[in-house]
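Per-record layout

source: Aquirufa salirivi
name: DUF4365 domain-containing protein
length: 627
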Amino acid sequence: MKRPRQHIIETESKKHLNSIIPDHWVARELASDYGLDFMVEIFKGESSTGSIFYLQLKGSDQIIEDNVISYQLKKEHIEYYSSIPSPVLFVLFSTTTKQFWGLWSNLLKDVLIAEGSKQKTFKLNLDKGHLIDKSFFVVLEKSFSTELPKKVNISIITTSDKGTLYHQQLIKWIQYYYGEYVEIDNSQLPSTLKFEYKENPENSLSISVTGSRKSFDLAAIDISDDTFFYLPILDINHCPKQFNEVLILVSFLLHKYNIRNSIELLIKNIGQYEGQLLNPIFLFEIIKKGIESNSILEIQNLSKATIEQNRLDIFQLVNFSILTFNTEGRLTDLYQSNLLNAIEKLKDKSLIGTFSYNLANSYRSTHELFLASKFYQNARKNKPEYLDKFYWWFEYAGVLFLSSHYYFSEKFYKRSYELNSEHFAPLIFSLLGDSLFFQGKFSEAKDEFDKFLNVESEFSFEEIFLKRQVCENFILAKLDKISFDFEKSRELTEQAFKDKNPEMLTEAIASFPLNGLAWFNYGVFLTDNNDNENAFTAFLTAACIQDWDKEAWKNCFLISLNLNKQDGLLLIYNVILNKFGIESVNYIAEHLLKDPNLESETKIELIKAFSDLATTRKQSDDKKAST
């Protein structure tokens, strides 16, 4: 029987590995099902240091060119190595050149993130910078700690004295902000920031920085005034402008190690910086990491600093980043306070107008309607051209509607439509219809609802269809455009409830047709008297007036079911799903199970049918959302 080549490679790899690991160390081979090959214990002389790391060894027959070796790694293996608390050294051996390459596992995780989490395998390329030999372990013995694989090596390449002096001053800043995460000229570290300096004839210094598999060529620095080279003490409150760009880059390259210090370093350097590093991608990464690590105060300080240092371009990027990552709403206060701070300190009326509009939109989203109205007005006052923008009228109309100023919301929606009729159709028809409906202009509202229903739309039509039906009922009852007597209607409703007098309820409705409570109580009275047809109309009217009323919609649904109104039943069921979510199936099921008029088997069948319908609807909505 022939021995497989892979087994021979494994044996050869282990044999050569023993030749580079110090003899006084102990490398314990692990069982094959352990997922790692060796547990290595570091000794100094005859005494154990107590330090251990794991080693995964792979061998290859591939042809080696330019000291580069490649290997395909599975995603599950990278995740496994990264999950182990102790350091893991991934080692590749070439049977053709007898060389070893090594990489600590935390950098393998970086490869996975960079390439994309959907991949199942990743191609790992190790070059001459990853070559290891016996000297690697000799140095490791002196410097090893469990945190060592997570640190960054700071190295320098220069033939210039000025480059050396510049680097010495730069190191002071890096060590102050990232001291526990960096080491200077330690080639055993898995990650390196390499600074390369070149002195130019025109008395300037070119800087190139390589890190995270990327190289950055920075703008040449004027060193005609070189006094900053010789400052003996680091003054963190006064950063020489010659360090602005390189420290901004360092704050980005090392932000994963200490996001709070990275943001502080940014604050100290953005004021004088006019280069291209502070782009959306850069700032998005910083803000995202800050949010993930709950560095909210630091992000707020960054926003304030951009205003104080008149860096409005950066302020807008920072605040937009906050808005982008505000998925759970917990950053809304931060976003709003940043805009308030900017509005208070800025002199530029156009920018004040823009920020006021953004703030108004945010207040509208949190239902702070008075503040939303105030800042929509402030936006218009400071930037009058908003009066020509359809979206200003549209957004403000929504606030007016939610504030029950239906007359003004109607006017604002109409003005928005005049400015851009193509943008809103058919949505604007339903919004106008609602504004007219709550003014008691039922015939006009019906016309707008008809316009909406006559246009094919991705918007749900069920509630509008039902509201149109209620408008028709009001028109037939000669309640269109009557004068409202709110107080009389309220008093009659209260008295009717006390006296259990349905005639008072009808009088209350005649005084104010949009009295949802009167309609609901009237529906209860009609149900108790087995007048289900009229009870359905009463509950439907109550539900359309106060669309948040889950009980009113539920009563409509159950009465439709009892009356076998199949078309109306599905319309109402879809409205309930839209308004209250798929969880409302449980709410309906509870009431079906209590219904004395239905057989047990029928109840179960109905619950299953409605549950299946809701699930299908949700899957359809999710598919639309994803596309």
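summary: Residues 151-264 form one domain. The chain has a mean pLDDT of 88.
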